[in-house]
Amino acid sequence: MSKDQEYHALMSDPSDELDGHSLMVKLTWTSISHKMLVGLLTAETVALAIAVFALFGRAPQTTCTIPFNPERVLYSPALEAVEHEVKVYNVGFASDFSEFQIPSSPALDEMWSDLYNFGVSRITKKDAARLPNKTHAIPGDDGHYIAALDVFHNLHCLNKVRMALDPDYYPDWRISTTNNWIPSQKNATQHVSHCLSWLRQSIMCSSDTSVIVWQWDSTLNASVFKGNVAHTCRKFDKIQAWAKEHMLTKVYDPTIHIEDDIVVPIFYN
């Protein structure tokens, strides 16, 4: 795509086009009665009032140059792998532990690594041109660009928070607090802080609206929280399969800058 070609935004919403030719109605003073003229002026006054009300009563406009349509989804090359299923979460208490709730060990580390260690992807220039944000070309791999699905970054971050919770086993991830500042752990502290912030935003963005319930427990004689409810989920193994198929296998050199002709639209402030 050349620089002078227009980049068509995913969320563009073409506005209704007007004809451009106004309807010209010529009325002569002698051809209408006084009553008709009064009616015409009244109608114009009402129309003008409605127009002014609509103009000043509408919601403030943002500076976004492309209107947002919430029914559309931002492009991802992995959308082809999206498939939904119903799942029930492990509550994580009593007899309902998940397989990840075991003590820190090489086996647990491998389980976590297997969730996302293929998370950096290699996509085509065609796919890169459809992204809402520009990404960089891969040096030495003409026509391909580097990318990563956010789900794998989320899992990476959650794993680092998990490691920070067990500093005796993972001393490199012992974080500092206001009451326990450890200068040598500055990078770990900043990394975990970033991860907590990122995960908070991701959870809020996803906003799972599955409904948690309370049910009556006759043994306790009270209604109790029940977390083992159904959720509509994207099949994780399908996303994993896509990522493994598109995994970046060569070493990426971030010091090499490659100019290209991809132009991305602005979707937000």
From TrEMBL:
<keyword id="KW-0812">Transmembrane</keyword>
<dbReference type="Pfam" id="PF11807">
    <property type="entry name" value="UstYa"/>
</dbReference>
<dbReference type="InterPro" id="IPR021765">
    <property type="entry name" value="UstYa-like"/>
</dbReference>
<comment type="similarity">
    <text>Belongs to the ustYa family.</text>
</comment>
<dbReference type="GO" id="GO:0043386">
    <property type="term" value="P:mycotoxin biosynthetic process"/>
</dbReference>
<keyword id="KW-1133">Transmembrane helix</keyword>
<comment type="pathway">
    <text>Mycotoxin biosynthesis.</text>
</comment>
<protein>
    <recommendedName>
        <fullName>Tat pathway signal sequence</fullName>
    </recommendedName>
</protein>
<feature type="transmembrane region" description="Helical">
    <location>
        <begin position="36"/>
        <end position="56"/>
    </location>
</feature>
<keyword id="KW-0472">Membrane</keyword>
